[in-house]
Design goal:
The chain has 249 residues and is of the alpha/beta class. It has helices at 27-35, 55-65, 118-127, 129-134, 145-156, 174-189, 228-238, 240-248; strands at 6-11, 37-39, 44-49, 98-102, 110-114, 162-166, 193-197, 210-215, 218-221. The protein has a single domain (6-224), classed as P-loop containing nucleotide triphosphate hydrolases (Rossmann fold, 3-Layer(aba) Sandwich), CATH 3.40.50.300.
């Protein structure tokens, strides 16, 4: 089922935007500016790139503006850890210069999950009796990190909608990553649109996913086997000593 809840991110800058400042100088952001926006594919889209390539910058800004179609209804706000608050313009400037173009029947369901901020979210759930009941009265923080991460994904990504995940491999074992791949595939099949930023070649291997590689030239679509990430891991696993001997010298 091909569904694009978020069809396009439009570049709609405030008059005082300083294009010489971060993050507008990051190549992927500069490309978005030059193109006047960014079209989002249906299904799962994976963002790959080195630290500093703009993966988190882009995904955070998109999470903050969805949904937006002339208004923002309180029931339709993106929910989840690290969604940018309205009073944080100085800390997250990109979102203020973007506008979301959504499908007329776009789902209000959405969730933004960052592995590094999961603990604070789970603590909030555990402290709220109503939310704790919804999770079966068992403390989420009493579970393993990976177990909890996948449980949050299963519970909060259940309804077709628009979902974002930033570096989920930080919380997951190899087996957990395979479970995540299965879940992402199921989401796409029922009509969800998912944006994933990762450093994991395993997570990036979601069948049918669109893969965007972010680098010094901006953003370009690549096949999984041709990504820098997969090439580097294959080379390392074939002959790790070739890399490790340079570290000791």
């Amino acid at each position: 089922m091909e569904v694009r809840h978020l069809e396009r991110v439009e570049w709609a800058p405030y008059p005082d935007v300083d294009l010489t400042a971060w993050p507008f100088t990051v190549p992927v952001v500069r490309q978005l500016i030059d193109d006047g926006g960014l079209d989002l594919p249906a299904g799962v889209t994976v963002l790959l790139g080195e630290n500093g390539s703009g993966k988190s910058t882009l995904i955070e800004a998109i999470a903050a503006i969805y949904p937006r179609s002339g208004f923002e209804a309180s029931h339709a706000r993106m929910s989840g850890p690290a969604v940018v608050a309205d009073d944080e313009r100085d800390e997250a400037p990109l979102r203020w210069h973007l506008r979301a173009r959504t499908h007329p029947l776009a789902s209000p369901a959405g969730f933004f999950l960052r592995a590094e901020l999961l603990h604070d979210y789970l603590d909030g759930v555990d402290r709220d009796p109503r939310q704790r009941r919804a999770w079966g009265e068992r403390s989420l923080l009493d579970r393993s990190h990976g177990e909890t991460f996948l449980e949050v994904l299963r519970q909060r990504f259940a309804e077709p909608g628009f979902y974002l995940v930033d570096e989920p491999e930080a919380a997951l074992s190899f087996t957990g990553c395979l479970g995540l791949i299965a879940l992402l595939g199921e989401l796409a099949e029922v009509g969800s649109q998912v944006l994933v930023a990762t450093h994991s070649p395993v997570v990036a291997s979601v069948p049918g996913a669109t893969i965007w590689q972010l680098d010094d030239e901006g953003r370009h679509e690549v096949a999984w086997a041709e990504t820098d990430l997969v090439r580097q891991w294959r080379s390392f696993l074939d002959e790790p000593q070739r890399y490790l001997r340079h570290l000791s010298g």
